[in-house]
TrEMBL record, chains A, B:
Record-linked InterPro entries: Pyridox_Oxase-rel (IPR024747), Split_barrel_FMN-bd (IPR012349)
Protein's recorded name: Pyridoxamine 5'-phosphate oxidase family protein
Lineage of producing organism: Bacteria, Bacillati, Actinomycetota, Actinomycetes, Kitasatosporales
Region (Disordered): 1-33
Coiled-coil regions listed in the entry: none
Gene source species: Streptomyces alboniger
């Protein structure tokens, strides 16, 4: 099922899919690509870390970092002193406006795919790749919303069950926003794709699924007596 | 424990640590950085996917991909038609020799860190970041070694228990190598770092560890009868 999106396939923000662009149409395995908003959101909401790519002094940098999503916008945060945060606040080479060109990628590894042939070994995975300009969030209201989203991304509901940032903490934190415009998802699922002529080879073939979920909670050693595990943690 | 590596700390390939460089010394949280070879190898050997960053038409790209390690060299592979593989085989802008400037990052998320304050929410993680030039592997012997390493990275021992690549498959596959020279590891472990004045707040605080390991094997639906689960899978 080879699908070749065309540029007439433009999507408005209200439509069900992102419009493919040159940067979001893979050269290989196009049948694994999707532009569906719901699939993209689901992949983004399930992961904890994104890999944020940007260019510093002419070299690529790939930084693992936490993120949060509010509708069609992602947020990442960091110290006001960190390099990508500072870079996003000043115009970069060849640009008039501030903003940092980024590629933000989120990946889940779901299983190890063991084929009869070495060639067809693979991973089952789901990933999202976003291209765009990351901009510093300067509006205090949006900054608060973004920081809540970052905490709620770790555990939904947690932002209302922790002490909100104070003025000093807010001043020390910079937030970048990245709009979900140029976006694609990619996934591999299912059994190995062995060649017909390999079917009788004496090698085990199949998928080793990676375990998901959480282990037992580790309360802080100095947790005050009488503080119980909140429902949003007990129910998982 | 703030450690500030200096440039006098140069490491030879035989030494226990990588030499820090401007690109591998973080501006923030330097106490989390390490240059120890053993720690770096352990982080690399435990993960399945790396995020490969490179520059294409002036924009950063972050691609999730499988990798393998042989000593102080990493390998990634792909179709000979894939963009980064092609780019690594030709001299890039401003370069005389072929090779693609990359940043390769590997990250494990180990736990969710729930502090009493929103500000101190974090993740426990281990990551490795490598800067360097990725080069196409042209020596047939090294290519074979690299492809074995990629399969054995998925499941150790698997390359000797599957059909090796044939001439057609070898010709369709390109392999890039990246030497471990400019390398750093970063990790956060342990309990939340709450502020002393927050200790009596009525919020649960602690770590939610992410579950690791594997779920039950899913054999290929067409697996021939009599093929048993190999020891290297049964023992995990």
């Amino acid at each position: 099922m080879q699908t070749t999106p065309t540029t007439t396939d433009t999507a408005s923000p209200g439509s069900a899919a992102y419009a493919p662009t040159d940067r979001t149409v893979p050269t290989r395995a196009r049948e694994r690509a999707s532009y569906d908003r719901e699939s993209v959101h689901a992949i983004l909401d399930e992961a904890y870390v994104c890999h944020l790519g940007f260019i510093r002094d002419g070299s690529p940098v790939v930084l693992p970092t936490l993120y949060g999503r509010v509708g069609e916008r992602l947020y990442v945060h960091g110290s006001t002193g960190s390099r990508p945060l500072r870079m996003a606040g000043t115009p970069q080479e060849g640009q008039e406006d501030p903003g940092l060109q980024v590629c933000l990628t989120v990946t889940h590894v779901d299983g190890l795919v063991l084929a009869r042939s070495a060639f067809h070994h693979s991973l089952n995975y789901r990933s999202v790749m976003i291209h765009g300009i990351a901009r510093q969030v300067t509006d205090p209201e949006e900054k608060r919303t973004a920081l809540d989203a970052l905490v709620d991304h770790v555990v939904p509901g947690r932002s209302t069950d922790s002490r909100p940032a104070n003025a000093k903490e807010l001043a020390a934190t910079a937030v970048l926003s990245l709009d979900l415009n140029e976006v694609s998802a990619k996934a591999r699922t299912g059994a190995p794709n062995d060649e017909p002529e390999d079917m009788d080879l004496p090698y085990w073939s199949g998928v080793v699924p990676l375990r998901k979920g959480y282990d037992a909670l580790v309360p802080s050693p100095d947790l005050a007596p009488g503080i119980e595990v909140p429902d949003y943690l007990a129910e998982r």
